[in-house]
């Protein structure tokens, strides 16, 4: 089983001010979001979210087509079918198509979505809530997703394919699979039995979370893009998103925050197999596609929006609006960087008359193995102390494990008082001697401080083992100085504990916005063995 301990986000020293202030509902940030992520606020969000029966039909039919040929659970089938019901709403998180799921926090995002739906159902039993994973199939930055870290080794998929990664052929990933020390059957089958990366991800997501009713949606579909064609045409001609995002960015920057999103006049890419490049407005009124010879007259491009809407892919400034346009969505679940850039986008939603979702922080977690837990116990380190800066942790352990108090601040103060008395007597005899006494005082104090350094060094040597144990733990839990969840793949834990995801899901409380420290509970036999 997994034991869960929680600490405040601010105690971790790992999160940006804007994220922490959002969690604390800072007054100055309120113009940039709709409602706080509190359970009681979802009732009003439900009442205000408008989503037509026509959109529900298109969404349901598209999802059925996307899952064609995949065996799905009754829970997932019910969730997809329930999207036709006007009382059904979605809870969405999004992420790239990282191979083998990428870092652990991707799993945490999905678990958060599932748990939020469970909590909402208890609070609003007359409504239905469907957890959704928005797969970023249209992204073209392959270097961000082509690797994952397993048991201390980085595994990379090398291919020269270009364009939207969801359309990549997965045949060449077999070489990476062959190099793995263990080959999880779910992933082997997903990659080997799929023609594209998007379909492979759908298969393993279905295997991991299908029983929980999680719906994966691929926005790279003509029937879904057609629902967004009015925004495409508007952005090509009027550039409203550019103006709106810049306005909100300037407001945030005036409050001392840094902009995360930088819009353009046109916030769409032109996309085909092997190609996803920016659309550029030219001075002569035509449009070109960056790094290609493609060029369009205005009417030609607008006609193309109607005939082939799937060729227009929104960038980060408009993708959130696209998500909210095609989903009956209440809340978007994301990490610190995501929520920060969503705060720049509220004006875009107002411009196009779409309800801004509740911004919900995903769950955050660190997993401490039994081996690292034993090292922490021997070094006498608490969970909160793991997050201390290295020099502060070293200082703490030196004091904790030393046999004596090496600090001589009291003695230094007493020595200074003695010299002040001597200086006063010397002044009565001969005022010219006060300078001499002062110089001798400085020498004495310097010598005393050198003695303190020697004492400190001796104590550090006594505490050396505890410090070494602490460093071994922090090196594991903070790879390259960052959070474990942003580096290690979930298979680091799942392969040794097949029920890891289930236990993680059980441990997390979505509406408790504290950092989760997860430890494997010891058996009675193991606990006795660790007693010194």
The count of DSSP E runs of length 2 or more, i.e. the number of strands, is 15
The end-to-end span amounts to: 24 Å
**Class by helix and strand content?**
alpha/beta
Radius of gyration: 29 Å
The spatial strand order of the largest sheet comes to 6-3-2-12-13
Assembly annotation: single chain
**Major beta sheet summary:** 5 strands, parallel
**Coarse shape:** elongated
User: Given the structure, what is the number of helices?
Assistant: 23
How helical, in percent, are the residues? 40-55%
Mean pLDDT comes to 93
Low-pLDDT runs of 5+ residues are: 522-532
Give a verbal description of the structure.
- The longest helix has 30 residues, at 433-462.
- The strands form four sheets. A five-stranded parallel β-sheet has the order 6-3-2-12-13. It has a five-stranded antiparallel β-sheet with strand order 10-9-8-7-11. Strands 1-15-14 form a three-stranded mixed β-sheet.
- The two termini are 24 Å apart.
- It is α/β, with parallel strands linked by helices.
- It has helices spanning 17-23, 42-48, 53-66, 74-82, 104-123, 174-179, 185-192, 197-209, 222-225, 229-238, 240-254, 298-307, 319-326, 336-342, 346-351, 370-379, 390-401, 409-429, 433-462, 464-477, 491-494, 500-507, 524-529; strands at 2-7, 88-95, 128-135, 147-150, 153-156, 215-218, 268-272, 275-281, 287-289, 295-296, 312-314, 329-334, 358-361, 365-368, 515-520.
- Residues 522-532 have low confidence and may be disordered.
- Strand 7 and strand 8 form a beta hairpin.
- It is elongated.
- The chain is built from 23 helices and 15 strands.
